[in-house]
Amino acid sequence: MNTRSWLFFLVKSVILGVVVASVLLVLIPDLRNNQPLSLSWFNQTPRLSAPMSFSAAINRAAPAVVNIYSTSYDTRPLLYRRQPVERTSLGSGVIMTRSGHILTCYHVIQNAERISVILQDGRVMEAQLVGQDPYTDLAVLKVSDENLPVMPQSEDPDTRVGDLVLAIGNPYNLGQTITQGIVSATGRAGLSNYVSSANYADFIQMDAVLNEGNSGGALVDSNGTLIGINNANFKTLDSQRRIKDVAGIFFAVPYALAKRVMDDIIAHGRVIRGYLGISGNEIIDQPGILVTGVDPLGPAAQAGIRVNDVILKIEGKPIESAFKTLDLVAETQPGEELSFELVRDNQKLQVAVRITELASS
What we know:
- The structure is a single chain.
- The protein is α+β, with helices and mostly antiparallel strands and 361 residues long.
- The chain has four domains: 3-40; 56-142, Trypsin-like serine proteases (Thrombin, subunit H, Beta Barrel), CATH 2.40.10.10; 164-268, Beta Barrel (Thrombin, subunit H), CATH 2.40.10; 274-357, Roll (Pdz3 Domain).
- It has helices spanning 3-27, 29-32, 55-61, 106-109, 255-268, 299-303, 322-330; strands at residues 65-78, 81-95, 101-105, 114-118, 124-126, 128-133, 138-142, 164-169, 177-185, 204-206, 218-221, 226-237, 243-254, 274-275, 278-282, 289-294, 310-314, 317-318, 337-344, 347-354, 356-357.
- Mean pLDDT is 84; it is low at 194-201.
C-alpha cells in the first residue's frame, strides 16, 4: 500500500468513527454524561404512549350537569282516611345559561311540588319551573346563584353517525357517572318532533348506557361540547305483552331542538308551534303528500283541504318529505298564511291556509 492510499484509508476511518460516535451520543444520552454503557440498555422496554383519555372533555362539561330531585305527594286510602305519601323522582339537568336556566326532561319534574338541584361542587338550591314542553319531553328550570358553571355549547354540533359520545348523569343516585358510546343514528331537529312510544326517528340514537336518573343529563362529544339531552332507552313488548327495555339502544334530544325549545319557553313560557290539522303519507315514487285525515275544526278543514287531496307545494316550494312539511308548518307563526298547491280529482288547486297555534298536550 503506497503512502497516498494509506493516508486516504486513515482519513476515511477517522471520519467514519466521528460519525458513529456522534450517532451514539444522540441515541444514548447517558454517554454524554460520562455514564458507562450497560448491556441492560439494549433490553429496555419501549416507552408507552400516553393512554387515551377524555378527562379534558369531562372536566369541561361535568360541572354544568346537576342532580335533580323532584318531590310530589300522592294520597292513598289507609283504612278510613287518606294518607299523603311523598314521592321523590330522580333525574339530571344541564345548566345552559349564566343566569341559571337548566334544561331537563319533563318526566323528571312532572307534577312536582318541590324541585331541588345539587351541583357537582356540592351546592344545593331550590329550582323554579319556568315551563315545559311535553311534545319533546323537555322542561326548563331556573336557579338563582352566582358563579354557575355553564355547559359548553356550539350553534351547530354537526353530530354524525359513528361519533364518540359521553353521557353524564346521576344513575340510581350513585353520584355523577360517565358512560361512553357511539352515535348509531341521527335525526332532524325541527319543532314538529316529539317523543312517543313509536317515534324515535328524529332523535340521536346511541349506545352510551342510560339508567334511571340519567334522564335530563348531558350527551357531549369528545371535546365536552353538548350535543343532546339524554332522554330514554328503547322499549318493546315481550311475548306476554309486557314492556321491557332493550339493551344498547338509547336516545337523546338533539341540541338544536332542545335549544330552540328552551329559548321559546324562556321568552314565552311555552313553545309556540304552528298547526295545520292534517295527517298524511308520502307517496312512493311520486312527489307530494297524500292527505289521509283532516281535523274538522282545524285550519286545513276551514280552508277546504280534504281527505285524498295530494299536497304538491307549500309557498311555491315542492314537497320534499312529510317530516320537512311538518317542520315548515310547526315553525310558522300562528296567524300567518301559507299557500298550498294540491291535486284533487286530477285538477290542481291553490288553497290559502291561515295557520293556528298547536295546543299544549
